[in-house]
Amino acid sequence: GAVVSQHPSRVICKSGTSVKIECRSLDFQATTMFWYRQFPKKSLMLMATSNEGSKATYEQGVEKDKFLINHASLTLSTLTVTSAHPEDSSFYICSAREASGAFTQYFGPGTRLLVL
Amino acid sequence: KQEVTQIPAALSVPEGENLVLNCSFTDSAIYNLQWFRQDPGKGLTSLLLIQSSQREQTSGRLNASLDKSSGRSTLYIAASQPGDSATYLCAVMMDGQNFVFGPGTRLSVLP
Prior knowledge:
The complex is a heterodimer of chains A (116) and B (111). Helices cover 0% and strands 55% of the residues of chain A. Chain A is an all-beta fold and 116 residues long. In chain A, strands 2, 4, 5, 6, 9, 10 and 11 form a 7-stranded mixed β-sheet that branches. In chain A, strands 1-3-8-7 form a 4-stranded antiparallel β-sheet, with no helix packed on it. Chain A is globular. The model of chain A has no long low-confidence stretch (mean pLDDT 91). By secondary structure, chain B is mainly beta. Helices cover 0% and strands 59% of the residues of chain B. Chain B has strands at residues 4-7, 10-14, 19-25, 32-38, 44-51, 56-59, 62-67, 72-77, 86-94, 98-101, 105-110. In chain B, the strands form 2 sheets. In chain B, strands 2, 4, 5, 9, 10 and 11 form a 6-stranded mixed β-sheet that branches. In chain B, strand 4 and strand 5 (44-51) form a beta hairpin. Chain B is globular. The mean pLDDT of chain B is 94. The A-B interface holds A 6, 32, 34, 36, 41-46, 49, 91, 93, 95, 103-105, 107-110, 112 and B 31-32, 36, 41-44, 46, 49, 89, 91, 93, 96-104, 106.
C-alpha cells in the first residue's frame, strides 16, 4: 500500500522555539494532506486540511499563525509550530490523499513533540 | 456536527475470547467508516473500510459491520491474541474529505 512518512519521529525543544514537521507521500502524489493532533489517551482531532499550491483550511479553534502549514509540492506538506509552548506538546499525525481522486487516506507514523 | 463515540473505553480479555467493539455516530450522512488500530506512540494502521452502501467487511479474524440508519458499527475480533492489544479507533468520513474520529477502545488481551 501507499506509504506516508513523517520527520522527525520525535522532537524535544525549548519553549519559544519553532519546530517544523515534514509529511511526505513516498510513492504517490497527494493533492490533499491533513494534519491531526492527538493528546495522550485521546482521539485524533483534525487541525487543518492543506491542498497543494493553496492556503490551508484550519478547523475552528486552531490558530493559523501558530501552526503554519505549507503544501508546496504533491509529495510534501510541512507543519511549523511557531513559538512553541509546553501546551503544544502532543502527537502530530498527518495523512495524505491520492491525487487520483480516490478518497483513501494514508496516515503517517506520527511525530511526538515535547516542549520544555 | 458529527460526533463519534466508542464503547467500551477499555477492555481486558483473556486470550482466545471473541469480542465486540462498538462505535456510534450521530449523523448518518457518511461517505464511509473505517476502523484503525493504533499501537502506543505509533501511527494508525487501517484495518477495515466500509463504504456507506455496504453492510460489512471481513479481513481474517476481523469483521466490521455498518448500520448507517441507526448510526452504528461494530468490530468483531475472533479468537483474540495478545498481539491484538492496541487502541482501536473508529472514524467516519464526511463528504469524502475529513475524518471524524471516535475516542478509541483500549484493548488488552492477556496471555
